[in-house]
From TrEMBL:
Residues 70-256 form the Pyridoxamine kinase/Phosphomethylpyrimidine kinase domain. Gene3D superfamilies: 3.40.1190.20. It holds the Pfam family Phos_pyr_kin. This is pyridoxal kinase.
């Protein structure tokens, strides 16, 4: 059985970060270890949430793992909340990466043209330096813009514009780039990919739903990382991740009294497992 470790915060209520990564990747038949970077009572869309930073626990965890000679087939980072955590991930990559270890970085820090609260352009530049150590990065269009320090465009761009972004992201050092939230027409949205070694582009588009939920980016990244570890090609992993997100959103809105804070991905787990 493959083993992955995912490093991100955990919201005790709210379908995002570790509360989606752990069940999704485990359901895909992969042993899933975690390093929680912080614990929150709920995710940050709720008011009055509690927050406890766990940065000081990361090094002792890693030291214990090294002592026990624990190895991983993949390291998957999500939301990292500080410059210190970025530096700790660089050290973790160096200490735990072997010849076959996949380094998968989701630079969770921005969306819809804006950085998340507490993040700065300087943090985005530091995240770009972490991304240069990855085999695969999965930014959305906003995160890509901040990592490259270019103006964000929410529409009106063409294929050449997106291809240039992909090439520039790969130039940071990552071997492959998976760019989320690309849309050339009002009814379609999807993902474009670039392999920095073969110079090949690929894409996958699907219907654009008139709904927005927290945590869908985390779900996409988790499915994609899991699918790659299960041996799917990048193109098939991306398609599966995108389809799963769409199905989860549709399953959610079928219920008139659905949760506002996250999608009901749990109901689509049988589809995910059956697709592997």
């Amino acid at each position: 059985m493959k083993r992955i470790v995912t490093v991100q915060d955990i919201s005790c209520v709210g379908k995002c970060s570790l509360t989606v990564a752990l069940p999704i990747i485990s359901a895909m038949g992969i042993e899933t270890a975690v390093i929680p970077t912080a614990v929150l009572s709920t995710h940050t869309a709720f008011k009055g949430f509690t927050f406890r930073d766990l940065t000081e626990d990361i090094t002792p965890i890693l030291d214990h793992w090294k002592k026990e000679k624990i190895i991983f087939d993949a390291i998957y980072t999500g939301y990292l909340g500080s410059f210190r955590q970025l530096e700790l991930m660089k050290k973790m990559f160096g200490d735990f990466k072997n010849d076959g270890t996949l380094i998968f970085v989701d630079p969770c820090m921005a969306d819809n043209g804006n950085l998340y609260p507490g993040f700065t352009k300087e943090f985005a530049a530091a995240m770009a330096k972490l991304a240069c150590l990855a085999d695969i990065i999965v930014p959305n269009m906003t995160e890509a813009s901040f990592m490259l320090n270019i103006p964000y465009k929410d529409s009106g761009y063409d294929l050449k514009y997106v291809e240039n972004i992909l090439v520039e992201l790969a130039a940071l050092g990552a071997k492959k780039v998976i760019l989320k939230g690309v849309s050339f027409e009002s009814k379609k949205i999807g993902v474009m990919c670039y392999d920095g070694e073969t110079k090949a582009f690929s894409s996958y588009f699907h219907e654009k739903l008139p709904f927005s939920f927290h945590g869908t980016g985390d779900i996409f990244a988790s499915v994609c990382a899991g699918a790659l570890l299960r041996g799917l090609s990048e193109e098939k992993a991306v398609a599966l991740a995108a389809d799963f997100v769409v199905r989860a959103i549709k399953a959610t809105v079928k219920n008139q009294n659905h949760n506002w804070y996250g999608v009901d991905f749990e109901s689509e787990i049988p589809f995910l497992v059956g697709s592997l």
